[in-house]
Amino acid sequence: MWSTLQDLHLQQEHRCELSQLVLGSSKLSQAYSVDPMAFNLTAAVGIAAGSIGLIAGALIPKPAQRYAMAVVTGTTTPNPAMQEYVDKVDALLTESGCRYIVRQRATLLMEGDGGPLTVVTACPGKTLQDGISFYKSPAYQELVKLRSPYTTWDFRVVEGEF
Q1: Residue 117 and residue 105 in contact, taking contact as beta carbons nearer than 8 Å
Q2: Residue 84's pLDDT is what?
Q3: Distances (CA, A) of 68 to 21, 63, 101, 150, 161
Q4: pTM value?
């Protein structure tokens, strides 16, 4: 019962505050009436300025970003150990800020004998030396030991820009 009385009291307080707010805002709007045409002009100028900014931003040339990239081609013999390699290399790439561009097991080989596997990774903001360091790192070299019995790969590290 006490809770109900408290609730009623609080509701009355809120109604009083709301009434004062409504009365105060109507007095305020009468005192500071806004010319709708002036407001529309301000809105139009704001929209036009924003649009010009977006268009200019899209047209201004951006500097190319450097990427360290790994390009892997070859063949892989199916083996459960390869799933462990894939899981671990995915985590290592994510941790390093890299992502897959292409990851296909059966690409269309037009020339050469590089095998059907093609993997291309890109690491934004990294250099060729960063790519070499990643490949030679103890963490990745452990993964090389894990996968090497089941892979015949050509593994290239390159630097590109987009």
Answers
A1: yes
A2: 95
A3: 61, 16, 12, 26, 9
A4: 0.61
